[in-house]
Amino acid sequence: MSTITVFESVTLDGVMQGPGRADEDTRNGFAHGGWADGYQDEVSMKYAGEGMSTGGGLLFGHRTYDDVLGYWTSVGSNPFVDVLVGSDKFIASRSADSELPYPNSELLVGDAVSTVALLKNRYPRDLMIMGSGNLVRQLHAAGLIDRYTLLVHPIVLGAGTRLFPDGTRTDLKLERSIPTSTGVIISEYSVRPVWINPTPAGA
To answer: What is the pLDDT of residues 4-31, one digit of tens each?
Structure first.
């Protein structure tokens, strides 16, 4: 069974929308795109490179797949692009007509929770989700996320789509924390299993 890890840049107030570029995600009038620009340093770049070299598969929502692959394949060859293109990529979509123009891509058609649960059981290697906020929120609510790697930036935006919506409490265990020279904290969390009391109420 695969382990699913979410890899996200977030602000202190939990916003994950459009960290990379001004035009990355302007839905709902979001005007702060590119907020993570200038916070990369040798520590964060080395960490991201190590994560991409683990050899597992990548899991995307269709919008993020088009954006990430479209952008990085347009900037020329580099180690990140080579890993991105060469990795197994699984794309959750409700439409069987979704086009997947990049190699090593497989479409998961239907309800994301159901299709990803099946993938998790059959895929022999671990999976990583980058971006894909809608997909992450669905899988989080269904208890299918095993780990979170969050690059927490010292920014409060006050607007934008948060990684975690209102919902049921989830307890996480901090496994590792790495400070960078720009104030970003790289935090690795495992999701604590939900404990269910086997004793019936009133017994």
So the answer is: 999 999 999 999 999 999 999 999 999 9
